[in-house]
Amino acid sequence: MSEPARYRLLLALLGGATTVLFVLSLTVGPAAIGFGDSLAALVSGDGGAIVLIMREIRLPRALLGLMIGATLGLSGAALQGYLRNPLAEPGLIGVSASASLGAVLAIYTGLSAAFPLALPLSALAAAVAGVLVVQALAGMHGGTLTIILAGVAVSSFAGAMTSLALNLSPNPFAALEILFWMLGSLTDRSMEHVWLAGPFILLGWAMLAMLARPLDTLTLGGDAASSLGVDMRRVRFLAVFGTAACVGASTAVAGAIGFVGLVVPHLLRPLVGARPSRLLPASALGGASVLIAADILVRLIAPGRDLKLGVLTAIVGAPFFLWLIWRSRGRLT
Amino acid sequence: MSLLTLSGIGVALGGRDVLGDVSLTVDAGEFVGLIGPNGAGKSTLLRAALGLVAARGTVEIGGMPAARLSARERALRIAYLPQEREIAWPVSVDMLVGLGRAPHRGPFAAAGAKDRAAVEAALGRMEIAAFRHRPATQLSGGEKARVLIARALAQEAPLLLADEPTAGLDPEHQIGLMRLFADLAREGRGVVASLHDLGLAARWCTRLVLLDRGRIVADGPPRQVLTPQRLRDIYAVEAFFGEAAGGLVVQPLDLVASNAKNERTVHR
Amino acid sequence: MAALAACAPARAESVPKRVVSMNLCTDQLAMLIADEDQLHSVSHLAADPGASVLAERAGAYVVNHGLAEEIFLMRPDLVIAGTYTTRTTVALLRRLGFRVEEFAPETGFDDIRQNIARMGAILGRRDRAVALTAALDAGLAALAASPAQGSVAVYSSNSYTVGPGSLADAVIAETGLDNIAASLGISGAGRLPLESLITADPDLVVTGARRFDNPALAQENFRHPAFRAFARQAVEVDIPDKYWLCGAPFTLIAARILKQAARRLEAGQE
Q1: Taken in order C16, C19, C23, C29, is the CA torsion positive or negative?
Q2: Model confidence at C1: pLDDT above 70
Q3: Cα distance between residue B161 and residue B77, in whole Å
């Protein structure tokens, strides 16, 4: 099979898996609704309880799983290509933690109640700050170790500030919600969240998609890419703001979900001939599949307990991360 | 019309002047060897010509002020081979060489027949077609260097700037590369290569530019630029000069004796 | 200190004169039963109008925060605590030789009667305790005379609900209403997913959970479009948390609010 044909087959398989998991996600929940009934309720129009559950509870959950999973996969692949580093990932380099801080500040000060757009905007602004700090600390030629250390520093600081903001809130529930912001969940999210985050997520995707060709060229390094006609300032703008827009909006409605952006691009890279431009769509589909699957699992493993998504992704992702470090030890400079 | 004209180029890095007032013109058909000791500013000069570092002075590319050219237009006129042989991902040799076609293609256009022909020609010229499907990161240092040169050739720009292209190559491939650059010059293109090997520079370049401490000290045919006294003054080495097989031979032999070194300091 | 510990059992028999309570529920029972000047200090929660029915009366007492050092300096002859709160403080105070009486939280009306009686005995105010129990029983009898019909679900912040084994469930039982949590297999406190609430479709939904001025995700469940759509069909009842956080005669108020709502529902259906 020729290389482009193999690539198209991979995308078709990933797309198929995502579709199947999306439909499956719609049929999983505490209310026992038959497979056929649940899907029929999505299209038919009477206002019964099943229609309400399907359209207002399960559909937004599945849609957010799809959008956020794709965001994590895509932004992981884009950041890795941009920083030319296989360990770059929104969670590890502190973008998610910064976005959480932005979202927390918007919600718990009451700003987002008065002005709903403040939530994604604040998360976006904080995520931009996070990326810029990591980039300033690690530089364009930063080695793996520097980037990870910068990410740890940014994550710790943002996490501490999030804790502080939640602990200072006069609402006694706030302090308990740090779990949501650090581990993420899609439980009982609504279409309001889809409409709020959707435009920013799509904008971020569009910006990251424009990076495809330049990321290929960046394989040769920044100077060579620049000499090949890549406008590095534009690339930097697209990478920073594209990541911040989609990861920021995702985090604002579902909390920080780690490791998807690390594991998915890494597993798919050999299947796309390591080509950064091809890794982008493949990782987006792969990320969506993985996150929807994780969200189905949390509902099956612990129904009624609101197990956080980040718990599952970390159980799989953290050992994987260790394996990556173990494999690349000695090359970490 | 010259391929590249630098006028009064100055670069300061970290508050220190790395280049001061360098002017240089490169025409079609020239193979210019950029020589000079470590830290003379060779790499910085190449980077300044490409706009990769902020520089005073003016750069004209193909008769056009560089500031008026977009990054893509510049890429159609100058190809650049950086000193670091970076290949971030295990992509195939084919794909890597194909990156040289980036400035020729629209942002979403697929590779056309002309692009494929250019890649084939570059693969053939560098004799790397045999491992075109292998991941570029798994190649030996010399093979990697040839793949990256093929990438620059595929770009088909009238001018090639190469930063220490012979570093890490065995004598066969070093000479092969110098021969290639000389051929490119004869075909009507221009090549500027920074070189540390004075022997290669003397034998293959049509013109040498000797840089020292950010300034051009000599510019002309190899026989005029390379003199025993200049090598003593600037490199602090004694060298053997001779003729063999119809060309100049320059072979550094030993360091200049220490009293001579002091003399050199005074001399300056 | 050893001397103090040695004479503690002998003093247990005598009536305490300087009592400190460290738990919201014991605070309120003590305020209801203690003699004038007998109770010295109550916890800070007792003065919180969102949590305490007797918040105004709590203003008359010194406020404590359940810290050992603070309690020690008050030199009480009796400390009253809950069995689930301020565990380390209780252990420390006991080691220092203070007399500490612990009260388990009430999960039913029998527990309330027992705790009232015990508080009366400890404080030497048995008559007052008997009077309170009589009032409680009279109120329960009145409720039992005309049981309400229908089903109810408690839906609190973070989608929490209560089932059998909780005080709120006992209150619901006294009204005659049917708590759907039992049929969903939830005992004590547990999560009631929004989906399950909508499919169970109770006639009444109790959302009296305390709202705070400062936002938190815990209360976003009340703003969910699916919940809003559901709440338009069911009758939403607001029972302030404070009435059934602690078991006391005032817990009857929760039952009465619920029953009135059930009556409105019946009237609406007729």
Answers
A1: positive
A2: no
A3: 11
Is the domain of C8 the same as that of C132? yes
- Give the phi and the psi of residue C71 in degrees, each rounded to 5: -65, -40
Same domain, C17 and C96: yes
What's the ipTM?
Answer: 0.90
Q: In whole angstroms, give the CA distance from residue B246 to residue A195.
A: 77
Q: Are residues C15 and C112 in the same domain?
A: yes
Query: Would you list the DSSP string of B195-250?
Result: -S-HHHHHHH-SEEEEEETTEEEEEE-HHHH--HHHIIIII-EEEEEEEETTEEEE
Torsion of CA A11, A16, A19, A24, to 10 degrees: -140
Interface of B with A in 161-200 (CB under 8 A): none
In order of their start, the domains of chain A are 3-328 (1.10.3470.10)
Q: CA nearest C248: which of C46, C109, C128, C84?
A: C109
Question: Which residue is it, tokens 């602004």?
Answer: A125
- Does C132 lie in the same domain as C68? yes
> What is the reported pLDDT for C4?
44
- Identify the domain containing residue C45 by its residue range: 2-138
Report the candidate in A279, A255, A237 with the shortest Cα–Cα distance to residue A73. A279
Total count of domains within chain C:
2
Structure tokens, A171: 């609402």
Query: Is B53 part of the contact surface with chain A (CB cutoff 8 Å)?
Result: no
Model pTM above 0.90: no
Residue positions counted in chain C: 270
The total number of residues shown for chain A amounts to: 333
* Same-domain check for residues C44 and C134: yes
Same domain, C74 and C188: no
Q: What chain C residue is nearest to A113 in terms of C-alpha separation?
A: C215
Q: Which domains does chain B have, with CATH numbers?
A: 4-62+158-267 (3.40.50.300), 86-154 (no CATH)
Q: C222 and C100 in one domain?
A: no
C-beta pairs of C244-247 under 8 Å, 24+ apart in sequence: C244/C167, C244/C168, C244/C171, C245/C24, C245/C25, C245/C51, C246/C24, C246/C25, C246/C28, C246/C29, C246/C53, C246/C105, C246/C106, C247/C25, C247/C105, C247/C106, C247/C107, C247/C108, C247/C109, C247/C111, C247/C112, C247/C115, C247/C167
pLDDT, position A331? 59
Alpha-carbon distance of B150 to B85, in angstroms, equals: 13
CB contact under 8 A, A30 and C196: yes
Domain boundary among C138, C162, C193: C138
Q: What is the pLDDT of residue B191?
A: 97
Interface test with A, best of C195, C197, C212, C220 (most A CBs within 10 A): C195
- Quick one: pLDDT at residue C188? 87
Choosing from C85, C111, C138, the residue where a domain stops is: C138
CA distance A222 to A236: 11
Q: Minimal Cα–Cα distance from C24 to chain A, Å?
A: 16
Is A206 near chain B, with CB under 8 Å? no
DSSP string, B134-159: SBGGGS-HHHHHHHHHHHHHHT--SE
Residues of chain A neighbouring C193 (CB-CB closer than 8 A): 29-31, 187-188, 303-304
Query: What mean pLDDT comes out for the span C232-244?
Result: 89
Q: Which residues have C-beta within 8 Å of that of residue B134, sequence separation ≥ 6? A: B92, B93
- What is the overall mean pLDDT for chain B? 91
* Low-confidence residues in chain B, pLDDT < 70: 1, 258-268
To the nearest whole Å, the CA of A93 is away from the closest chain C CA by 26
Q: How far is B158 from chain A (nearest CA, A)?
A: 14
Q: What percent of chain A has pLDDT over 70?
A: 95
Whether residues C80 and C159 fall in one domain: no
Chain C neighbors of A29, CB-CB under 8 A: 193, 195
Give the helix, strand, coil percentages of chain C, each rounded to 5.
Answer: 55, 15, 35
Interface check for C83 against chain A (CB to CB < 8 A): the answer is no
Tally of residues, chain B: 268
